[in-house]
Amino acid sequence: MANEHQSPSANENDGGAAAAHAQTAPKSQKKKLIVGVIVVVIVVLAVAFWKWHEQPTFCNSVCHTPMDSYVESYYQNNVASLASVHGKAGVTCLTCHPAKIDEQINEVTKWISGHYAYDKETGKLLSHSAKYATPETCLRSGCHNMTLADLEKKTKNMPWNPHAFSQHGVTNCGDCHKAHEQSVMICSECHRPAAEHVPEGWAALPYRPDHEATIPFHAKG
Ligand code: HEC
Ligand code: HEC
Ligand code: HEC
């Protein structure tokens, strides 16, 4: 009896194993399909995230407090702000601020922990630097593809050529061109014509006759 009972059950087991075998092929295909779908979804999401990440509005969609003023200055109509002028020309945040993975992790960590200092009035970060607006950053292919000498020549007919670098040496572009705030004419401290021809929307350092005879920047050789 027990034998009789066992043998069909053994048979059943065999049958079960066989059936299981018979099912493994479609099951693993199903698994492959599911994994495939998941991979496709992840890739689509990653691409979508990357596209979103490239949008200027991405920067303040999560990080409102530290980013709002920068994004606002980008969409503002302000001829004296680099972000605004470049925004109109379709240049994105990431062109001027290339996304480096370590920097981004650092930013996210600071944002989550709240360890960043900013000015409550202007909403600007206090870790302010002019490090991006250097000749190397601005004068490159894809951006202003020219040399300093080309730039000096390009603006030589302005009433005051601010790019007369051959005179005193090069200053950082960011000393005058501010990205997210009003730009400043700095030659005006010593040169009356510079003080008299401040471009629209710009600020200017006040003319100081006492300073005029001082040779600025790198002294001429
Ligand atoms: C034309 C280049 C340019 C564009 C476009 C630009 N920035 Fe900037 N950004 C700069 C420069 C240069 C500085 C350094 C400070 C300055 O000169 O005002 C800066 C400073 C900053 C800072 C302060 C951190 C620091 O190191 O000083 C933040 C935050 C920032 N930008 C965010 C943005 C966001 C967000 C966008 C897009 C909505 C954007 N920027 C678009 C050039 C740019
Ligand atoms: C001494 C201040 C000063 C410095 C430093 C400076 N610029 Fe300018 N730049 C100006 C002024 C002023 C204008 C004219 C702005 C206007 O008319 O609205 C200008 C205009 C420009 C223009 C537009 C030129 C045109 O033909 O319309 C470019 C491009 C430019 N600057 C690039 C640079 C780069 C790149 C650097 C760094 C190598 C730099 N500038 C450094 C003051 C400066
Ligand atoms: C601290 C004062 C000071 C500042 C700031 C200054 N200069 Fe001068 N600059 C001088 C003096 C002094 C001379 C005459 C001596 C010489 O040739 O270097 C001069 C001469 C010049 C000359 C020769 C023609 C002339 O008008 O006398 C040019 C061009 C010039 N500067 C351009 C600039 C530009 C562009 C800037 C801003 C990026 C600037 N300077 C900022 C003091 C200054």
Describe the protein's architecture and organization.
The structure is a single chain. The protein is mainly alpha-helical. Helix content is 53%, strand content 2%. It folds into two domains: 34-128, no CATH class; 129-221, Flavocytochrome C3, Chain A, domain 2 (Orthogonal Bundle), CATH 1.10.1130. It has eleven helices and two strands, in the order H-H-H-H-H-H-H-H-H-H-E-H-E. Strand 1 (184-185), helix 11 and strand 2 form a beta-alpha-beta unit. Helix 3 packs across helix 4. The chain is elongated. It binds heme C (3 copies). Residues 162, 164, 167-168, 171, 186-187, 189-191, 211, 213-216, 220 line the site of one heme C.
Give the structure's gist in a few sentences.
This protein has helices at 2-54, 58-61, 64-75, 82-88, 93-96, 101-113, 135-138, 148-154, 165-168, 173-176, 192-196, and strands at residues 184-185, 203-204.
Summarize the helices and strands and which ones pair or pack.
Blueprint: H1 2-54, H2 58-61, H3 64-75, H4 82-88, H5 93-96, H6 101-113, H7 135-138, H8 148-154, H9 165-168, H10 173-176, E1 184-185, H11 192-196, E2 203-204
Parallel strand pairs: 1-2
Bound molecules: heme C (3 copies).
Residues 79, 135, 138-139, 144, 148, 151, 154-155, 162-163, 171, 173, 175-177, 185-187, 199 line the site of one heme C.
